[in-house]
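Table S5 (text form). Sequence records supplied for joint modeling of the two-component complex.
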Amino acid sequence: MNTSEAIRTRRSVRSYLDKPIPKGVIEELLRAAMSAPSAGNEQPWQFLVIDDRKKLDSITGINPNAKMCKEAQVAILVCGDATKEKYPGFWVQDCSAAAQNILLAARELGVGSVWTGIYPIPERVQAFKKHFGLPDHITPLCLIPLGYPAKDTAHVDRFQQNRIHHNSW
Amino acid sequence: MNTSEAIRTRRSVRSYLDKPIPKGVIEELLRAAMSAPSAGNEQPWQFLVIDDRKKLDSITGINPNAKMCKEAQVAILVCGDATKEKYPGFWVQDCSAAAQNILLAARELGVGSVWTGIYPIPERVQAFKKHFGLPDHITPLCLIPLGYPAKDTAHVDRFQQNRIHHNSW
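The corresponding structure-token record, covering 338 residues in total, follows.
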């Protein structure tokens, strides 16, 4: 699938088939994530791949907005690593670019995904840290549940001319 | 260009040919940006397209790390719009996903780009706000200079197995 098609047709997918995702596909998604740009090429990211059924099922207990984990085959927890930051405060942008790469690579490979937010909600960050035993220097940014889509998603055009300005406000 | 190739081969491009970028290409990049996911689909973004030569040249005065603007044909200032946020604090992630879409769509179209950081450096944010007359509710996240690459960039593999963890830390 070409890049612009993946970008334009990517949608949040929250309902999945009961069909395993090959390990090679997950590695492709992580390879895409680590290809993201980062401030000063600091690459301040870590990825926790969750494919244990009980662990996936338990996530709804710490984030009620992540109910789709009960159907997901795998979820990737995208985390910032404070020890790798050269430019303080840029890890959110770096890890967001990595997360977006995961969504787009998944779209190309026919895998449905959805970006579920964690940071900067303090209680949610703490709950994920505790649940997955993350060290102090690791902050979970978002969780991306993954699975083959149970249904097709409609195309949506979000283009808005009025969000574009020229040379000055 | 397929999605994974664009993701894997995208590099920061800081040197450009003296060759105009068609307006339709810039619109494609903005269309890609606005296709990004956002918290609760809030789409809290605004884009300032800078193609005035004097404006482009003046940017080095407010960000010495953006010298490539002197060669760039166009630059896109990606901004957060506080009035459009439904989920406070998520605009950085939303706008970062939009920025990453711009870089990937540019790569597909043969246009070189580079993500130059602004937020969260307070002085830099203020300098851009003043220089481009941004209202109080608009925060510049990053500036993306664009141009056809003056030279090929080498492929770099950033994959690191030790950034991947399984089921718990």
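Note: Chain A has one domain: 12-152.
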